[in-house]
Amino acid sequence: MTTTPLHVVLGAGPAGTAVVAELRRRGLRTRHVSRSTIDGVDPAVETVVADVSDPESAVAATAGASVIYHAVNVPYHRQVAEMPVIADAVVGAAAHHDATLVVLDTLYPYGTADGDHITEDTPFAATSQKGRMRADLDRRYLAEHARGRIRVSLGRSADFFGPGVWSSTLGAGFFPQAIAGEPVVAFGDIELPHSYSHVPDVAAGLVTLGTDDRALGRVWHLPTVPAVSTAEIHRRVGALLGRQLEALVLDEPTPIGGFDEQFMAEYAEMFYQHRIPQNMVSTAFETTFGVAPTPLDQALSTTLGWFTDALTPAG
Question: Residues in domain NAD-dependent epimerase/dehydratase (predicted)?
């Protein structure tokens, strides 16, 4: 029987998949858990199909875990109802196995508080249902740590972009259109600074939280470059492609492309994020753990390359 620490990743979206890749890059024993079969997995990675919203299934799927990474998400219209249920089951599994729990988190709990300079000390000011739900969960995770039931650290990310990220404001409505020379979709005031986190940096940050006890018991902002405007992102991607991008800017949460009516109806309460500055500062993480985010132009170039390959007939 092996005594090598086991790292269990819950969720097979772009973040969970990137965490698995980072764990393997570091040579760590890895299990990947999802509600459905995971294709194209590294043979060295154990896979388990399980619904971790069920407490017994969560305990079984994480058997033997030293660290559990919670990167599970659900469709937008089900988040408020289902994410607390999943959180309860995952906390129970971590407690059962005496495993460290690393949670992937969002900026939602802050609401509109101090958008120019968001740090881990920025107060929770969410008024949206999803923001209040996330804030309540964060308080619950940290309370469970404080009373000694589990060991936990929370890794907070801004909007994703990067390899494998389709469902994002810098995802399927942006990179494929930019590559094809078509108008790219953007939301709100694109001249305001807005933070975007590169998924490989998110994954590397979460694994650092899972392998360094200095991370325990608090929220961390995962490495993210200082915010620039979305218009500046457009300019830089245009420069990489050798042509200026044309933007289709939505001032309201109107359905378009992959952002269907159901999604946009749910996203309406979060649309404020594109009407205010949103600069997430990750200095505490970078200083404590001695890392820096991928330079923006490098991250955009890597992402363009990934989408270009994915959009070819063989991709």
Answer: 9-212
Residue 71 falls inside a structural domain: yes
Domain assignment of residue 129, yes or no:
yes
pLDDT digits (tens, 9 = 90+) for 44-65: 999 999 999 999 999 999 999 9
Q: Strand ranges (DSSP E) for 127-256? A: 151-156, 159-161, 184-187, 193-194, 196-198, 219-221, 228-229, 247-250
SS3 at position 297:
helix
CB 228 within 8 A of CB 237: no
Q: Are residues 88 and 209 in the same domain?
A: yes
| Verdict on whether the full-model pTM lies above 0.90 | yes
Same-domain pairing of 148 and 242: no
Q: Both ends of the chain: CA-CA distance in Å?
A: 40
Which amino acid belongs to residue 67?
A: V
Beta bridge partners of residue 102, listed in sequence order: 69, 153
* Number of domain units in the chain: 2
- Print the domain residue range for 13: 6-161+196-225+280-289
